[in-house]
C-alpha cells in the first residue's frame, strides 16, 4: 500500500505513468466515454481548511470513476472535538477505500497515514501541495512537452507550493529559480530535495524569471497564516508577477497559479488574464490528474 503525502513519494517512472494515464482519462472524459474503474469504492475527504478546486476535482473525479465520496470537515465531525487523529484514522479507514486530507501540519497527515488501513492523499498541508504540482506538470506537458531540462520561476512565498516544486524539480530533472522576500525563503530541510542542484535562489524576482519556461506564483498569505497578512502585504509588494517579468522569461513561457488568485497582489490582471496564462487548464487538470492518482493508489498500473 502506498500513500501520497509528498511529491517525492513517487518515482519519476511512476510520474511518467500517471501523466500518460491522466491524458487518456482526460481524452475519454472529453469524448463522454465511461471510465468506471473504481465502482463501489469510497473515498473519505477530510477538510480542515477551505477549498473549491480540491473538493470539486476529487469529488467529481471519484463519481466519474464510478465510486463515491464522504465529505467531512473539522466543524461537522469529531475531528473538531479533539478525537485523536490515530483513532479517527483507524475508524475512517475501516469503512472507506481511500482518504484525502487537507490540514495544517504535515505531521498530522503522517500520523493519520501511519494508522490508516487504506492509502492517504495529501490535499494540501502547510508544507506541501503535491496534487497541485502533479496537475501543473501535466498541464506543462500538454502545452510544451517534457519539463525535463526546463526552468520554472517561482516568485513569492517559500510556501507549500514552493516546497513541492523543489521536490518535483529534483525528481523530474528541471530547475526552479526561486525568488522570495527576505524572511520568507524556502527551507531545504522542509522542502527536502535530495540536493540543492535543482534550484537557484534570486533576490530579484525579475532575474528569477530570466529565460524561464514557466513563471508561477501563489497567494502572499496562505491559509493558516492570516494573522501575518499586514506584514506580508508590505514584504511582498515587489513580488507581483507583472508584464516585465513575463517579458524577461522565454518568449513562449507559460504562466500558472494554483488559484485562488488576488489580482493586483501576487499577479497583475494583465498576466493572469493574458495569452500566456494557462490557469483554467491547470485548474481543470486537477481532476484528470487526480483521477489517475486515485486509480493508481487503488489498482496499481493499468495496461
Ligand atoms: N488550488 C487549490 O488547491 O484550490 P482550492 O483551495 O480551491 O482547493
Ligand atoms: N499556498 C496556498 C495554496 C492554496 C491552494 C495555501 O496554502 O493557502
What does this molecule look like?
The chain is of the alpha/beta class and 303 residues long. It contains 12 helices and 9 strands. The chain has a 5-stranded parallel β-sheet with strand order 7-6-5-8-9. A 4-stranded parallel β-sheet has the order 2-1-3-4, sandwiched between helices. Helix 2 crosses helix 12 (279-299), helix 3 (85-95) packs across helix 4 (106-114) and helix 5 (130-144) packs across helix 12 (279-299). The longest helix is centred in the last third of the chain and has 21 residues, at 279-299. The radius of gyration is 19 Å and the shape is globular. Phosphoric acid mono(formamide)ester (CP) binds next to helix 2.
Query: How many DSSP helices?
Result: 12
Helix vs. strand class:
alpha/beta
Low-confidence stretches: none
Care to count the β-strands?
Answer: 9
> What is the CATH class of the largest domain?
Alpha Beta
Oligomer: single chain
- From the 3D structure, determine the CATH topology of the largest domain: Rossmann fold
Q: Give the integer mean of the pLDDT values.
A: 97
What's the CATH H-level homologous superfamily of the largest domain?
A: Aspartate/ornithine carbamoyltransferase
Shape: globular
From the alpha-carbon coordinates, what is the Rg to the nearest angstrom?
A: 19 Å
Task: State which percent range the strand residues make up.
Answer: 5-15%
Span between termini:
19 Å
Amino acid at each position: 500500500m502506498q500513500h501520497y503525502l509528498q511529491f517525492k513519494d513517487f518515482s519519476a517512472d511512476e510520474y511518467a505513468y500517471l501523466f500518460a494515464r491522466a491524458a487518456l482519462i482526460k481524452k475519454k472524459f472529453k469524448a463522454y466515454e465511461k471510465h468506471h474503474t473504481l465502482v463501489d469504492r469510497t473515498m473519505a475527504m477530510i477538510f480542515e481548511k477551505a477549498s473549491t478546486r480540491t473538493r470539486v476535482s476529487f469529488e467529481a473525479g471519484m463519481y466519474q470513476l464510478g465510486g463515491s465520496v464522504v465529505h467531512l470537515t473539522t466543524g461537522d465531525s469529531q475531528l473538531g472535538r479533539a478525537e485523536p487523529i490515530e483513532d479517527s484514522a483507524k475508524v475512517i479507514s475501516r469503512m472507506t477505500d481511500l482518504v484525502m486530507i487537507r490540514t495544517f501540519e504535515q505531521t498530522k497527515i503522517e500520523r493519520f497515514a501511519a494508522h490508516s488501513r487504506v492509502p492517504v492523499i495529501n490535499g494540501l498541508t502547510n508544507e506541501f501541495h503535491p496534487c497541485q504540482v502533479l496537475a501543473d506538470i501535466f498541464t506543462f506537458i500538454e502545452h510544451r512537452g517534457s519539463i525535463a531540462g526546463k526552468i520554472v520561476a517561482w516568485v513569492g512565498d517559500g510556501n507549500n507550493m514552493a516546497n513541492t516544486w523543489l521536490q518535483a524539480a529534483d525528481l523530474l530533472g528541471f530547475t526552479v529559480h526561486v525568488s522570495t522576500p527576505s524572511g520568507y525563503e524556502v527551507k531545504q530541510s522542509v522542502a527536502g530535495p535530495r540536493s540543492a542542484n535543482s534550484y537557484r535562489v534570486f533576490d530579484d524576482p525579475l532575474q528569477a524569471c530570466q529565460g524561464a519556461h514557466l513563471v508561477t506564483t501563489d497567494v502572499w498569505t496562505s491559509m493558516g497564516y492570516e494573522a501575518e497578512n499586514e506584514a506580508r502585504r508590505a514584504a511582498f509588494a515587489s513580488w507581483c508577477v507583472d508584464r516585465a517579468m513575463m517579458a524577461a522569461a522565454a518568449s513562449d513561457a507559460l504562466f500558472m497559479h494554483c488559484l485562488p488568485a488576488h489580482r493586483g497582489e501576487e499577479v497583475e490582471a494583465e498576466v493572469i488574464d493574458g495569452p500566456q496564462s494557462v490557469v483554467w487548464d491547470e485548474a481543470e487538470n486537477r481532476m484528470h490528474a487526480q483521477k489517475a492518482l486515485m486509480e493508481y493508489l487503488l489498482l496499481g498500473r493499468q495496461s
